[in-house]
Amino acid sequence: MTEITEVPSPFCGIGTDDLSIQVDGVSLKVTANGCAVNTPLFEHAITDTRPRVDGKEASLEAAVAKAADLLKGTKLPVIGGCATDVNGMRGLLALADRCGAVVDNMNFVGARNNFLALQDSGWMNTTLAEVKNRCDLLLVVGTDLEAFAPRFFERYLWTEAMFLEDTSQRQVIYLGKAPSGVASTSPNGTKAHVLECATVDLPEVMAVLRALVKKQPIRAESVAGIAVADLQAIADQLKAAKYGVVTWAAGALAYSQAELTVQMLSEMVKDLNDQNVRCSGLPLAGKEGDQTANQVCGWTTGYPARTRFSRGYPEYDPFLNDTRELLASGEADTLVWVQAFNPVSVPPVTDLPTIVVGRSGMTFTKEPDVFIPVGTPGIDHAGHAYRMDNVVAIRLKKLRDSGLPSTADVLNAIERQCRLG
Amino acid sequence: MLIKLSGGTVYDPAAGIAGQQQDIYIGNGRIINPPADAKPDKEYDLKGKVVMSGAIDMHTHIGGGKGNIARTLLPEDHRQDPVASTHICRSGCGHAMPSTFVTGYRYAEMGYTAGFEPALLPINARQAHMEMGDIPILDKGGYVMLGSDDYLLRMLTAKKDQKAINDYVAWTIQSAKAIGIKVVNPGGINAFKFNQRKLDLDEQNSHYGVSPREILQVLATAVKEIGVSHPLHVHGCNLGVPGNMQTTLDTIQGIGGLPMHLTHIQFHSYGTEGDFKFSSGAAQIAEAVNKNKNITIDVGQILFGQTVTASGDSMRQHANHKHASPNKWVTMDIECDAGCGVVPFKYKDQNFVNALQWAIGLETFLLVDDPWRIFLTTDHPNGAPFTCYPHLIRLLMDKSFRNDMLATIHPEAQKMTTLASIDREYSLQEIAIMTRAGAAKLIGLKDRGGLSAGNWADITVYTDNPNREQMFEKPDYVFKDGELVVVDGKVVATKWGTTHTVKPDFDPSVEKGLKEYFDRYLTMKLGNFKISDEEITEDGRGSITVHPLKG
To answer: Do A284 and A388 touch, CB atoms closer than 8 A?
Structure first.
């Protein structure tokens, strides 16, 4: 039995890298700095160790050969999930390029809210160390931050900072959704200021807040149940802050055309900076390799991870290249599901031939034609994953010898078979 | 396999050879002396062809987060230039900020065999190496950015001695797997986080009380004292600001004779004369460069058309966002380390400022005497995509073509440039110096950038053509480490290049202070920050080459 310290997590998205993990054979136990997101995903036991073809155990070679057979002659295979490390994504994109597939990250419907805003007008953002050391005002929009990342406040707010004498004086404001717990309460007992409204009303509320920041006259006295005077107070606080930060999780804005809300708040941040105030955005993401997928797809194709290769070159479409749409419309003819992080995240059920390259322990309502259990990056093999702020790639450690192949091993082998055959 | 390149006209400034007919032998990836008796396995008849070593781009943004932001920002640009896969090449996209694979192919197809990313943020170096790890054929490397990181600024405020700074600089180079040190808007990226909107050479960071001049001094000294060949690589203060010529001249004076490389100097060579209060400072800058032998420069030429600017200079990029075309842009504050700004630009020949920028860059090329101290860059993609290099070479080598182009730009800009009166035309040897031998010498690359025995066989063969653009955009052959990778301007085989680094020594006790700082203030453990060799080599296609230090 050994204990490994300073273990980075690919699961929570906020780049915690201070976990201690006890390794006993292939079983893991988080002994320090775990959380509700990370601990279960580290401790999940290995159950499947052998690939299956048509529900029967098979060798890795046979499973790879079968997968390549299924992909040969397909017109539009879809590679969904895309939840793996950098090398896994490299292999995935090589395979997609080889067989003219669609590549679609499973969190893209949420991420799309950000990409559409980014690609239309851009933004001014910051990263976690800047938040930790500079942020004196955090505005959380439409998101239950501690449910998203349980250790966010402990690691980045209620802790020592280079440029703030007393970090317990930092102000936290929630707009929209109220926090589910007390993580946002300052160590000095001050609770977060919460202005609640229905999530679907956020477009209206954000529009009024931005208008107030821009000193536009607002005739209404309240919007979606929030007094305009209270929003004016937030606008004033943003302007008075030395380093305000506005954060949101794109996936939590689960309503139609939420990209306009992201754009509204990003433009508000720009407006503040044009008024000689520093303020930055902080999009929350980084779960199960979503930033990794978009980064690697970004440098390999120029586009985020909702891109098809069916015409021989990459084509990005944030709506048409949606796995579920392509399955529903009958356009797709094979499904490949890649998910090395989360055994609960299984492919959508379909009658199409299905290949799953997934974390050991997945249970399927319908057994896929091929299931190849792979190691988890950061547990079974070393690798790289991006955290939420996109700039920082963390070096994942190998914690145990499970003998499971990596995503890259498997996808590269399938790609080789497709090339030869 | 023994390869013989027979009878080519060789331009090899590293060996003092200027257009002499010579045979070249290649064995085991390197250039070798003529073997006594061995019969070549393969011979290329190069009579009448021009032979140079593979070109080296010493400043090109090909790896790192800001480039990927630029890619993500511009799907409409990629759609104009889709690149399909072939049985040899991966698919991707081209134009302003090409995908990694296409970057490698297109550089190689112009005869380039190496490119250096000039702005490796320490915290983002891992990404830069991973992106460059997906660039085929080319060798690569990076200059790691310091000067706006809070750790260095705290050291300066605390009056730490030069030895302590040297240790930190050397440690950073090793941790980031870099080959040089760059500083971008010294202290300015940091000052922007404290809401300072400009920072002159002698203006103090409001929090630290440290000026850009002091930062340049200690970093240039550190680079020299730890023995790194490449001089401190400086993106100066006040990028793009009319009148910044004076800042640049003061920067040259202020460095007191220490080796210093001023990058994309075109963007730092502006006066304030004329009706539009914008004029060329190229003559004064060139004079200062000619006089001060410790100074090297690259130009950062702009060429007309759509591109995207991607810079670590968040302060100046924010100030320039109103010029964004299309109107969308990104800035980021990054990890108490640095920042970045991505602003799409469309340089127009009928825009007075853009037209004069174009002329200022060309004046600079033509007025600096010593081709060993000036380098051919567009600061890809900031001035123009690297694929414009053949056009730029023609502008330098062909006066009548240059003057034809000059006659088409904004008339007021034509009046404000001396370009028409400059007769100089670059020779093939001078082009070879700027893009090969000089670049290898400047970066400190051992066994690259030359064609004498012992060098790696990175070789480009062109058909001589009075139209230099056509000549340089389509080499007959390109060899990388002795393997034929391009024929007639098209990739015929791919391989992986190496990552060039240096490993300056430091006192291991430097990590004591760093560990405490990381634990207290940063979001990553020190041990998880340092990049290991395996991260570059473990997928089996990367390798690391460590170059010697200066004695």
So the answer is: yes
